[in-house]
Amino acid sequence: MNPRYDFTGQVALVTGAGSGMGLATARAFAAAGAAVALTDVNRDALQQATATLSAAGHRVLGVPCDVADEADVAAAVRATVREFGRLDMAFNNAGIQAPPTDAADEDAAVFDRVNGINLRGVWASMKHELVQMRSQGSGAIVNCSSLGGLVGLPGRAAYHAAKHGVIGLTRSAALEYAPRGVRINAVCPGTIATPMVTDMIDKGELDRAQAVADQPINRLGEPEEIAAAVLWLCSPGASFVVGVALPVDGGYTAR
């Protein structure tokens, strides 16, 4: 059983909240009593997720947002604060994958798109969240890296470059903002049963059996298991945790 948190009176923002780990985390924040702003570039998925949580009695706001566009990110944070009055927690989760590619054949446009969303998008999200949290003197941010931020894999250079970058970004900002009352950490998911992973399997870009075999726990992770880690990192239980890159990967990086 997961720990129970009481985030009543607090406000969370989750990027990429239309599905997968983002939706699971938004749902978990809401269940713990937080008001939640959900952002996603997929308007249909965002509308459905927001409507579902609202129908369950939660205070939620859906904001269309492309994290690769800094103006979009800034507007989403402003909308959150305008609606709920503050910002206490954020999970910068929005990200994409790309087909495996020989490093010598990597297309610059693909590299730029992957890094524009997976790294620059996290940078922009954190930047504008920190503007509000700095003024409050409090807050907790969790950036989504990956096991790909901790190891390398053939064919994944662009993706792993971005995810390694998220960890460097997290650690540096964490050192800067810990004295100001804002804790910043990263979570590093393994292979999780999300729509993105399902799509990769369906396209032949990921072998499910091999992915399971690579994780000593011998299964794929569930989005709710990432949500549990994010909520802990945002909770008082992690009050002395600053600048970590927490693997939640079924043992992949322990080998």
From TrEMBL:
Keywords: NAD, Oxidoreductase. Transmembrane segments: none annotated. Residues 10-215 form the Ketoreductase domain. InterPro entries: KR_dom (IPR057326), NAD(P)-bd_dom_sf (IPR036291), SDR_fam (IPR002347). It comes from the Bacteria. Belongs to the short-chain dehydrogenases/reductases (SDR) family. This is NAD(P)-dependent dehydrogenase, short-chain alcohol dehydrogenase family. It comes from Micromonospora mirobrigensis. The lineage of its organism: Bacteria, Bacillati, Actinomycetota, Actinomycetes, Micromonosporales.
